[in-house]
Amino acid sequence: MADMIRATGLVKKYKEVVALAGLDLAVPEGKVLAVLGPNGAGKTTAVRILATLLTADEGTAEVAGIDVAKNPNGVRARIGLSGQYAAVDEYLTGFENLQMVGRLYGIPKAAASKRARELLERFDLDDAGDRPAKTYSGGMRRRLDLAGALVAAPPVLILDEPTTGLDVRSRQQMWTVIRDLVASGSTLLLTTQYLEEADVLADDIVVIDHGRAIARGTADELKAQTGGERIELVLTDRAQRDVAAALLAAVAIGEVQLADNGRALTAAVDGGVPQLRSVLAELESRHIDVLDVGLRRPTLDDVFLSLTGRAAEAAVEPANQAEEVPA
């Protein structure tokens, strides 16, 4: 299966800030690659290079077999781009926004109008299509922006954090739209900070930090790298935490994680239910009261914490990171 997106050794620097430090990416035709990472990891910089909005200092990139540096116009004709900020004209109606995009692509007016109406219906915006976009909710604007990326029916879509700032309902609506696009044969590069989003949508995942890929694979493969199940305990008395932590450490893979509240403990294990029973028996023999207990598989949050040393939602953008500036 041919790669519709391929980047090799991408480097981008902004004075003393290294946004990309030799990033490699590959997205096969008809697949979804999710790029995970905190703000400042280099996600948006990579997107801008692939979308021909920035030039890499080093490395090469191709989209649909076309070199982004040598033939940027050819790349632009084959991609749809939806950035972190909905690129809609607030004073035009939803229909006029989409019709304008079609005309900018060189589509005849009648065909552009027909395509605009089709997309308004597809994205559940037909009832609002003749209203100014400034009256739209955040979720409606994001759907309109994504519809704009599809006007020319491009074979490759690049979505840069398409659900950032949306409420849960609007985010799930966007997930449905994205699934439909992939089912119709689109190739998709998706950047996100929402680990659940990558888990739900992606065929493969690349985790990047400080401008470099630090892990890649399917969601299940990445979770397997982090270890097997997790034993989670919530103690009744935080004064018993150290004893409970020592018991867990005897069976844990890696360090026992302690929550800030002083009562919750998490340990990666490989023994499953029998090991959980053994731990509970030890806790009972030491008269350690447990308020709650569970055995679960690792999540992508666990993967992220293991790889980067911090939770995704706790990551902070460096003040001088250039990729925070809107395109």
What does this structure look like?
It is a peripheral membrane protein. Keywords: Antibiotic resistance, ATP-binding, Cell membrane, Membrane, Nucleotide-binding, Translocase, Transport. It is found in: Cell membrane. Its main location: membrane. Residues 5-235 form the ABC transporter domain. The chain has 327 residues and is an alpha/beta fold. Helices cover 34% and strands 26% of the residues. β7, α6 (168-183) and β8 form a beta-alpha-beta unit. The chain has helices at 43-50, 72-76, 94-104, 109-122, 138-149, 168-183, 195-201, 219-225, 241-249, 272-285, 300-308, and strands at 3-14, 17-28, 32-36, 58-63, 66-67, 79-82, 156-160, 187-192, 204-209, 212-217, 230-235, 257-258, 264-268, 290-296. It contains 11 helices and 14 strands. Mean pLDDT is 88; it is low at 314-327. It has a 6-stranded mixed sheet, sandwiched between helices. Strands 2-1-4-5 form a 4-stranded antiparallel sheet. The chain folds into 2 domains: 3-88 and 136-223, P-loop containing nucleotide triphosphate hydrolases (Rossmann fold, 3-Layer(aba) Sandwich); 227-297, Alpha-Beta Plaits (2-Layer Sandwich). The longest helix is centred in the middle third of the chain and has 16 residues, at 168-183.
